[in-house]
Amino acid sequence: MPAQVKQDESGQLWVRKDAQSCWVKAQRTFQNGELIVHLPPEKVLPDGSIVIEAMPDESGYNGWTNYETWAVNLHLSNDQYTYNQARRYYKTADELKEWLTNCWYGLKDEIGEADKFYISPAILGLLSDLLIASLQSVNWYEIYDGLHSEDELEDDQSA
């Protein structure tokens, strides 16, 4: 399947592998009269992974309500184990929110008890406030719907 390419209002090209992937800034060059769309070298890391930038659009970020919602979806759906865990064990949007919030509080407690991190309580409090504010900005219903959209497809196909 060929990659998808689109151009925003400013003329910037964006490319993604498929509809499930994130948009990434791309460059254009011409070679032998053909338009070539490629990723800038600084966007490809030595391990082959790609530096992601959210593409702003009318509906928030990459079709999600806001950056925070997009980022949660990206990380929940980018790893098969985490994706399956979120789909299987958390049956409501509120359960998803509670799970990730509790993950942070558990991590915060571990960081606060470990001297090896050398993080002052003030900095830990700052990071905690910022993370909790971000989690409160997430559209959890949209995340839940995104995780379970395949369920609707399966139900339609089995009917």
Question: Describe it for me?
Answer:
- By secondary structure, the chain is of the alpha+beta class.
- It has two domains: 50 residues, no CATH class; 92 residues, no CATH class.
- The chain is 48% helix and 16% strand.
- The protein has six helices and six strands.
- Helix 3 crosses helix 5.
- 11% of the residues are buried.
Tags for this model:
6 helices; alpha+beta; 2 domains; globular; 159 residues; four-stranded antiparallel sheet
How large, in whole angstroms, is the Cα Rg? 19 Å
How far is it from the N-terminal to the C-terminal residue, by CA? 29 Å
* Uncertain residue ranges: none
Note the quaternary state here: single chain
Task: Kindly estimate the percentage of residues that lie in beta strands according to DSSP.
Answer: 15-25%
Sheet bearing the most strands, described? Answer: 4 strands, antiparallel
Name the helicity range: 40-55%
Spatial order of the strands forming the largest sheet: 1-2-3-4
So how many helices? 6
Q: Report the count of strand segments.
A: 6
The secondary-structure element order is: EEEEEEHHHHHH
Q: Quick one: overall form?
A: globular
Average predicted local confidence, pLDDT: 76
Query: Structural class of the helices, strands and pairings?
Result: alpha+beta
* Domains (count): 2
